[in-house]
Structure formats: C-alpha cells, structure tokens
C-alpha cells in the first residue's frame, strides 16, 4: 500500500461467484442501499443478496428495470416503465403499486427516525 493513502480497499464479495451475470453488475441494475442487501436486476429475475446471512442469494422471477431494498426493513421496491411496486418480503405481500405520469428513477429517501 502506498504511504499516505487514507483508505484500504479489500474485496469481500464477488457477485459473479454468486452467479450474478457480469452484464447486471453496473449502475442502475445493481444497488446496495445499506450493509444488509445487494439487489441485482437480471434479464428474467431479481437477485437479492443478504449480506447479514453469509451472502445468501434469493432469486425471484420478476421482470423489472430497477430494484432497491429498504435499508431498515425487508421491503423491496421495483420499477418497470412507469409502474412502481413495493413488496413486503417477510409477509410475502404486495404493499403498493402506483403508475406515475413520467419515468422515474430510484433515489435515496430520508433516513429512518432514530
């Protein structure tokens, strides 16, 4: 390591070793909203990598353009075209579906109250 470098990088997880296609590992298709989940949108499914459970991979046969997990609860948000849907993975239920007037992108919301 070079002297004076304030950050040391170390690979702790390789998504390709978890069978996430290289074409899905890029901005807009793979998200890491917290230290709990990595979510990857693949051509015919969404892969959820649980970082708190030895990188256990769960694959759901869902078509989506983007996906993100809630950082504090097991809620998955999906976007496809102008439709946004939210699912509670613990109860395996759809919480909400909404059609927006114009295309949108996922961003970060406010942090949960402490």
TrEMBL record:
UniProt GO cellular component terms: clathrin coat of coated pit; clathrin coat of trans-Golgi network vesicle; clathrin complex
Molecular function as annotated in GO: clathrin light chain binding; structural molecule activity
Organism, scientific name: Skeletonema marinoi
Region Disordered: start-end pairs: 93-114
GO biological process: intracellular protein transport; receptor-mediated endocytosis
Protein name per Swiss-Prot or TrEMBL: Uncharacterized protein
Stored InterPro entries: Clathrin_H-chain_N
